[in-house]
Amino acid sequence: MIDRARRAFGSKLLALGSLALTAPTHAQTEAPLSFGVTPVVLDEQVGVLVRWADWIGARVGRPVAMVQRARYREIVDLLLRGRLDFAWICGYTYVQHQDGLELLAVPRWHGEPLYRS
Description:
By secondary structure, the chain is α/β, with parallel strands linked by helices. The chain has one domain: D-Maltodextrin-Binding Protein, domain 2 (3-Layer(aba) Sandwich), CATH 3.40.190. The protein has helices spanning 2-17, 46-60, 72-80, 91-96, and strands at residues 33-37, 64-68, 86-88. Strands 2-1-3 form a three-stranded parallel beta sheet, with helices on both faces.
């Protein structure tokens, strides 16, 4: 069960991480990009987040700082106020706030843009 959850987590990360390949390159001296992650990312997965931040940062030429909060709502509030550059959120949150958010990526399930929990 844990291995299956880790594989699913990794596939979600790759969905958004692959967008970093097409992002514009910025000078390393600029402030880090802030990437919000919700409490669904467990503390034991922090190592994955660190490696992922390094991977994205290498592709965009700019450091990436992962921002975690204890409550999902805190990440959404930071995102809506422009305090985060991007965040990993669920589809329902996007639908609720789509007039204030820009969609970057969606998970794929069996080749379709679907989310399966």
